[in-house]
């Protein structure tokens, strides 16, 4: 089954209520004031990377496109807004006809980003753009956080397999999005069946300690598993005594045993012992999977251990210390009046402190050095300088309300691998540091 | 509108795929081995609280009941499992008829918990219970993490209002569950319309900086907002100059202005200045809402500031440093055979280290001191001692597959407030420490 067939479009319910109430009250006030139809430009960007991180990963764009397409106010939603008196009748009438008819440009999903990168640019009337703020930020902030953690883990894992198995550690639907983002970031598979169903991500899984405990002996459990799932299965060997379990596993399944899984203890030490034991038992091709509270640092520290694959749960779905990004969605330009030909005026919040931003519709390009390695994220307003024209980062995603930027998840995953490979080598160092390339404003 | 009317049951799709693949492969192997029907007891509990936390908050139980009720394998799901060859035909046939017919007992939602507390106990055949592991843990681990953060924040806020506004910082559906958990933990309202729609939580919201920037002047923006939303609205006063904005806000809305919102700067200092200015302008009843990157520590530090309500986003929905709990779902007892009258045998993983657990079906009670304050969480197997019989913590939630423990969210919210009030006073200290009462095993 191909991810392109299954991935998109998926069954997304109306996304119109994934919205902060103030988006609707602003709409109501702007409709009354005659300013709602002013042509506007909103941009999603982050002012900083999470502390210590060297790059960010754009993820969730495909889900944003689904959300925009499904952002409709049906009767049940309108009734709710009316009963609660959240907005007035003219606003309800306006919402009943709502669909986004504007344009969206953005970094393609899987691309890396830096402070200030205009990851998404949404253009249309103020009214139609402002409504999308909450759901766009929900998706980008969550999915990009998970993808960034996944990318670090996949850099640390090198060519070894990475299994996403964090569903039980996060909200049941956040888990599905997390599997998707992990796949973008370089994971190979997931334990989450819903992620397999919705996005075509390869799913894996064999057994837990409960299965061993259900049976009268470990031998009974291993025999039951091998008889049902075949010799290529993965047997969990740390319910009682690991050495005895490994011996038993090979006795029951033979040297064709697919893998053993270790879920506790000093993984470095245990992996070495188990590898030696497996080799001595003639099971040289039986793989070792480890799965206990791993993060990118633990994965890196196991680089010298005879481990074939890592299963990662908690630290993946919680963004390895950074469960959200700090992306914001800001009005950066708007027309002088509701006239369709009125010129755009750059706007920006001007209060003191860290929350100020730069007005005007932005372009972004990545400047490369002579070896083709990224050396700066260049952001500007107005004309793109000629020497950067072919390295622009934004692509068209929605045109006049129609989604034009949908793509298979494997394309996104490959893009991320390529984008990360195009950064200076220090990008994948796990030590804390600044963004690996500077952001320059032209 | 009453939360009891809206809250439950809600429109939950089939939850059967919010499941790790190994639950299904274990099922297949157990069906073939003839062990699938062994009567079993699974328990959800946590071995430890997040570092430094004094108590945990049970949240998500109501959502678990929805998930269990909707855990069915329809044709689309079965086709997916067949196409991917995840399980064999006899297993697919078994799944087609699946509904949970067992019993669930647990701590009532809103109750506090400690290390080892048997928060949920699921009893039935191994087959029917093991399938529920992933979705039960997803819900409890997510929702309880958010509720714990919310509870700390609400203790710090005292009688002041708390608004949940973190939707944009987490997955769009996790945000809805987070609003619900925040309400359980003591928040008063949410910005998230979907949380209002699904759970009847009061929603609030007026305007963002974009609304001010849309207009030709701050005066135009304030005038537009007041004309549409009334003088009782909340005006955002930090787009340009706070002092000028406050002056203008009272000029436009009059002293009946509902509130001003401050979203940046040194909130302590700015709140004092704004309060003084409002009082001097005769707007003594105009409230002050602050909303910039708050957590429980920031809320506590503003206790002496003239603030009326706090809006909390990122730190709420990310669990204020602990975005997930470490609840596990373990087989603790199972029958000797598939015979319905076969006696139960306690079982437990016996490997070394932190992952061992205690076998046997557990009861739990809270022992109080002479003043009625909690002094220990008492957990045991077998008979409940007479002096603890009236303080047992587990209630019946599902009986023979039928949900019997559903309750309105306001009841849950009140229960949490009472449970927290029954703990030693040091429970709500924000300083890091151990669990505020010990867990004793009888």
UniProtKB/TrEMBL annotation, chains A, B:
Nicotinate phosphoribosyltransferase N-terminal domain segment(s): 17-141
A Gene Ontology molecular function term of the record: nicotinate phosphoribosyltransferase activity
Pathways per UniProt: Cofactor biosynthesis; NAD(+) biosynthesis; nicotinate D-ribonucleotide from nicotinate: step 1/1
UniProt key word NADP: no
Entry-linked SUPFAM superfamilies: Nicotinate/Quinolinate PRTase C-terminal domain-like (SSF51690), Nicotinate/Quinolinate PRTase N-terminal domain-like (SSF54675)
Pfam families found in the cross-reference section: NAPRTase_N
Entry keyword Glycosyltransferase: yes
Name of the protein described by the UniProt record: Nicotinate phosphoribosyltransferase
Alphabetical UniProt keywords: Glycosyltransferase, Ligase, Phosphoprotein, Pyridine nucleotide biosynthesis, Transferase
Organismal lineage: Bacteria, Bacillati, Actinomycetota, Actinomycetes, Kitasatosporales
Function: Catalyzes the first step in the biosynthesis of NAD from nicotinic acid, the ATP-dependent synthesis of beta-nicotinate D-ribonucleotide from nicotinate and 5-phospho-D-ribose 1-phosphate.
Annotated TM spans: none
Leading EC class: ligase
Family per record: Belongs to the NAPRTase family.
EC nos: 6.3.4.21
PANTHER family hit by this protein: NICOTINATE PHOSPHORIBOSYLTRANSFERASE, NICOTINATE PHOSPHORIBOSYLTRANSFERASE PNCB1
Record InterPro entries: Aldolase_TIM, NAPRTase_N, Nic_PRibTrfase-Fam, Nic_PRibTrfase_pncB, Nicotinate_pribotase-like_C
Reaction equation(s) it catalyzes: 5-phospho-alpha-D-ribose 1-diphosphate + nicotinate + ATP + H2O = nicotinate beta-D-ribonucleotide + ADP + phosphate + diphosphate
CC annotations in GO: cytosol
Gene Ontology biological process terms in this record: NAD+ biosynthetic process via the salvage pathway
Modifications the protein undergoes after translation, according to the UniProt entry: Transiently phosphorylated on a His residue during the reaction cycle. Phosphorylation strongly increases the affinity for substrates and increases the rate of nicotinate D-ribonucleotide production. Dephosphorylation regenerates the low-affinity form of the enzyme, leading to product release.
